[in-house]
Design brief:
Layout (H helix, E strand, L loop, with lengths): L2 E5 L8 E7 L2 E6 L12 H4 L15 E2 L2 E2 L2 H19 L4 E5 L5 H15 L4 E3 L6 H11 L9 H5 L2 E5 L3 H4 L1 H13 L4 E5 L5 H4 L3 E3 L6 H12 L12 H13 L3 E5 L1 H4 L4 H15 L8 E4 L6 H7 L14 H11 L12 H9 L5 E5 L3 H4 L3 H10 L2 E6 L12 E4 L8 E4 L4 E5 L12 H14 L8 H13 L24 E2 L45 E6 L15 H4 L6 E4 L1 H7 L6 E5 L4 E8 L7 E5 L32 E7 L4 E7 L10 E6 L4 E7 L5 H9 L4 E7 L4 E8 L2 E9 L8 H6 L7 H7 L14 E3 L4 E2 H11 L4 H8 L9 H14 L1
Parallel strand pairs: 6-7, 6-13, 8-9, 8-11, 9-10, 11-12, 13-14, 14-15, 19-23, 20-22
Antiparallel strand pairs: 1-2, 2-3, 4-5, 4-15, 16-17, 17-18, 19-24, 21-22, 21-24, 25-27, 25-30, 26-27, 28-29, 29-30, 31-32
Bound molecules: ligand MGD (2 copies), iron/sulfur cluster and molybdenum atom.
Molybdenum atom binds next to loops.
Length: 847
């Protein structure tokens, strides 16, 4: 039986997984020998096998919407870039790449742009993600170094999570923390986040600070640690702040974890340094159980930093000083070394918009959704004379805008390395054959380089070749002057490479921690405490836009859903784009729980399902980032965000936008189940979620419709129709069958409802619908049962909220462990444990 050891393609925890062939597909399990997860997986990792089907994949090169062969497509790309460079110079072209590329892909893209095209206009979506941390590290340490490791989290006596919802976004690290807390209840957890998140639910102390005030808090902490007077106005009662300061001051083993609540800010670099200052002041860095530890988002955010994927870094953790440019140029034998940093993501798309960029190549990212001012970004891409997109998916909001689409290998097919948040390099190994004509990104880029006249320097035959070259560059004239040194991996057997933490100066010798010896990478060998003057977010609420929109992640989806969106298991937790609103705000604004709201930003608007959430601060609403024009009528939060950036890092302020929220008053509500894409208009509300053999659309509209004809335009006209119309109550139900097979159903109600026709969903799995079943298709209720939609809490075992509440009540359950014993909920991946704790606590409050 085949079994392949590889690495999860989602978050920066970098869990090892084992893929095994089974009779009917693949099983994905946690790798017990991988040091990041020791066998654990979260719900996204556990559901990977559901995401490897080929429907929706881009399988052939496409030029101008028509399928073509690779030779033609690659010529077209090389010509398009070559012509722009010849006419307008190297800075008239740009690559926009991604932390979801493998290190080898990333290395080749960077080398082509910075050494051979002769521009540094290559930037990455990590600009939106980790760039403030990179800049903060460099200012403090003289290098972009993560000093510690995951084991420190378990060795600490105080773990502070700032702007991190690790329970949902780095679930396996969070589970390691909770397991240690169970073993050692004295271990304290502090969470600093304006929202009461699943992470905050598990904390000993939650500081629900005013958004953007982290630097006030941490400069206050620094003053406290120095014994100075501190004034700390951050929207939290002083005694809670003092408790945090006391705990921090009096605990030697402190680890501070942070993520996007810190980075995605117009003062993110300062916030990072405000945190690091407190660790430098107390000398708590690089020793077991202590240190600042940034949690990286994407599977290879770190690898991208290592090769120089950011426009302001050159390669192998070297910058744009003359010595480095000369050194890298000699190593590459490069004819056209870039002499200065290139455009950072937001500016890069600004240059696309104003016509300075004539040719753009986007790889492994979806900027039409994920950049701030996403509507302007779309317009910019549409006006760019030549746009290439490499992606695994055929139809994304970005691939739609491309002149040339290039099919890339996806996870399970591609082969290379990634680096996780603790500097650990792991292999991603293929276990599936390349589908269609898809190719590895490194190969696509190398072939374009060859066609541009650089064949000799891009003659790679495997990712192992590229990795060895990357390792040699990190070691080249290093002599201990640079943190990133992979000398010990140059001759390693790539095939069997075991997970290892850099620097690896000699074979087999990884590095758990740096800086424990007090030596840093500034010229004088010291670290720097950067003086911070806290600044508020760029835009504040105004009478027109009185609320603050905060954005981030949902538990079971990944970014723009191109992979997770295929899984019915993952869709169950949050099938619609939500807006979390404090009940007092909702009452004031006339919003109902489970109703709809229109959110208007300065440039754009969207429609979201309202969720009342007492864990929101009044005046602030929260929306997840996952919905696109492919999965919802109008819920791209990127369009609502402003493009204010951090002056040092260039990272945009993606956690803070002034908005207005109003009820979206629906005249009707509906549920549609169908097999393929259906032709829904964008002036109604809809959101699509994956089902087993179909998709489910939830619908609502502001004006009435002629249902029989509307149903035909949405579901397709031909075939056999079964219909039920009750004009008096405003109900309409219809099913369309073709050759006895169910193709689609539509249910319309006048009132918002939890209606979930699960019995109809099953009918999509049947080859033909028999007489008895036909009668149930347009029934308003299941053949004798419960009609409500239950919120899924445990995705692994499909356990819903109602069942958990009933079990707690009927069996007088008092712990998460007891719920697990009875219902299995929470016993596989553990991602839902924080939610189970909330349900338990509520049940206790109400009993
Ligand atoms: N399920 C899931 N997991 C993921 C991803 C995913 O798409 N889905 N994506 C991965 C990626 S690329 C990334 S970058 C990480 C992101 O991981 P996280 O950063 O943990 O996730 P986010 O939800 O973006 O934001 C974290 C928190 O920042 C808080 N926040 C907002 N403003 C402030 C503020 O001013 N101060 C503080 N202290 N907090 C604030 C938000 O309320 C939010 O709870 O997740 C990774 N893991
Ligand atoms: N408002 C707001 N906006 C945000 C954020 C936020 O918190 N709030 N977070 C930001 C952050 S931290 C991030 S990381 C970004 C993420 O945003 P994006 O990077 O835009 O989102 P993804 O959906 O991950 O896009 C990855 C694309 O690459 C494709 N892909 C996957 N693997 C490969 C591969 O190997 N090769 C190729 N060629 N293609 C591949 C996928 O099919 C998908 O289309 O969003 C940012 N935008
Ligand atoms: S925590 Fe979950 S998403 Fe992140 S790497 Fe591990 S299994 Fe994958
Ligand atoms: Mo990210």
């Amino acid at each position: 039986m085949t079994s392949i050891h590889t690495t999860c393609p989602y978050c920066g925890v970098g869990c090892g997984v084992i893929a095994r062939a089974t009779e009917d597909g693949w099983s994905i399990k946690g790798d017990p020998d991988h040091p990041a997860n020791r066998g654990r997986l979260c719900v996204k990792g556990s559901a990977l096998a559901e995401t490897i089907a080929l429907d929706g994949r881009l399988l052939h090169p496409m030029v101008g919407g028509a399928r073509t062969d690779w030779g033609t497509a690659l010529d077209r790309v090389a010509d398009g870039f070559g012509a722009a460079i010849a006419e307008h110079g190297p800075d008239s072209v740009a690559f926009y790449v991604s932390g979801q590329l493998l290190t080898e892909d990333y290395y080749v893209a960077n080398k082509l742009m910075k050494g051979f095209i002769g521009s540094a206009n290559i930037d990455t979506n990590s600009r939106l993600c980790m760039s403030s941390t990179v800049a903060g590290h460099i200012r403090a340490f003289g290098s972009d170094t993560v000093p510690g490791c995951y084991d420190d989290i378990e060795l600490a006596d105080l773990v502070v999570l700032v702007g991190s919802n690790a329970a949902w976004c780095h679930p396996v690290i969070f589970q390691r923390l909770l397991a240690e807390k169970t073993r050692r209840p004295d271990l304290r957890i502090v969470v600093i986040d304006p929202r009461r998140t699943a992470t905050a639910e598990c904390a000993d102390l939650h500081l629900a600070i005013r958004p953007g005030s982290d630097a006030v808090l941490f400069t206050g902490l620094l003053a406290y640690l120095k014994g100075e007077e501190a004034e700390v106005e951050c929207g939290v009662a002083l005694e809670r702040v003092v408790t945090f300061f006391d705990w921090f001051a009096s605990t030697e083993k402190v680890v501070t974890l942070w993520s996007q609540g810190i980075n995605q800010s117009s003062s993110g670099t300062d916030k990072v340094d405000a945190i690091i200052n407190c660790h430098l002041e107390t000398g708590r860095i690089g020793r077991p159980g202590m240190g600042p530890l940034s949690l990286t988002g994407q599977p290879n955010a770190m690898g991208g930093r290592e090769v120089g994927g950011l426009a302001n870094m050159l390669a192998a953790h070297m910058g744009f000083d003359d010595g480095s440019i000369d050194r890298v140029g000699r190593f590459w034998g490069a004819p056209n070394m870039a002499a200065k940093p290139g455009l950072k993501a937001v500016d890069l798309f600004g240059a696309v918009a104003d016509g300075r960029i004539k040719a753009l190549w986007v790889m492994a990212t979806n900027p039409a959704v994920s950049l701030p001012e996403a509507d302007l970004v779309r317009k910019a891409i549409m006006t760019c004379p030549f746009v290439v997109v490499s992606d695994c998916e055929a139809d994304t909001d970005t691939t739609r805008l491309a002149h040339v689409r290039l099919p890339a290998l996806a996870w399970g097919e591609k082969d290379g390395t990634v680096t996780n948040s603790e500097r650990r390099i792991s292999r991603q190994r293929p276990f599936l054959p390349p589908p269609g004509e898809a190719r590895a990104d490194w190969r696509i880029i190398s072939e374009v380089a060859g066609r541009m006249g650089f064949a000799g320097s891009f003659a790679y035959s495997s990712p192992a070749d590229i990795f060895a070259e990357h390792c040699r560059l990190t070691a080249f004239e290093n002599g201990g002057t640079r943190d990133l040194d992979l000398a010990g991996l140059i001759a390693a057997d790539y095939r069997t490479l075991e997970p290892i933490q850099w620097p690896v100066r000699a074979p087999g010798e990884g590095t758990e921690r740096l800086f424990g010896d007090g030596r840093f990478f500034h010229a004088d060998g010291n670290a720097r405490q950067v003086e911070i003057a806290p600044r508020p977010p760029a835009l504040q609420p105004s009478p027109d836009f009185p609320l603050i929109l905060n954005t981030g992640r949902s538990r079971d989806q990944w970014h723009t859903m191109t992979r997770t969106g295929r899984s019915p298991i993952l869709a169950a937790h949050a099938p619609e784009p939500t807006l979390s609103v404090h009940p007092d705000d909702a009452a004031r604004l006339g919003l109902a729980d489970n109703g709809l709201a229109r959110v208007s930003g300065i440039r754009s608007n969207g429609v979201f399902r309202v969720v009342l959430d007492g864990g929101q601060r009044p005046g602030e609403v929260f929306a997840p980032i996952h919905w696109t024009d492919r999965t919802a009528s109008n819920a791209v939060v990127g369009g609502l965000m402003d493009a204010a950036t951090d002056p040092v890092s260039g990272q945009p302020e993606l956690k803070h936008a002034p908005v207005r929220v109003e009820p979206f008053t629906a005249a009707w509500h509906g549920v549609l189940l169908g097999r393929d894409s259906v032709g829904l208009p964008r002036d109604i509300y809809w959101a699509r979620a994956a089902g087993r053999h179909h998709s489910v659309w939830r619908l609502a509209g502001e004006t009435g419709e002629d249902w029989p004809s509307t149903a035909r335009s949405w579901l397709g006209g031909d075939g056999e129709w079964i219909e039920f119309l009750d004009p008096h109550r405003g109900h309409y139900r219809a099913a369309r069958l073709v050759d006895g097979r169910l193709e689609g159903v539509l249910f319309i109600f006048r009132w918002a409802t939890d209606f979930s026709p699960d019995w109809v969903a099953q009918a999509f799995g049947h080859a033909a619908i028999d007489g008895d079943e036909r009668a149930t298709l347009v029934a308003g209720a299941p053949p004798g049962g419960d009609r409500g939609r239950d919120k899924t809490i445990c995705s692994c075992f499909g356990v819903g909220l109602a069942a958990i509440r009933t079990a707690i009540r009927d069996h007088r359950l008092t712990s998460v462990a007891e719920i697990g014993t009875l219902l299995k909920a929470g016993t596989n991946c553990g991602s839902c444990v924080p939610e189970l704790r909330v349900v338990l606590a509520e049940a206790v409050r109400h009993s």
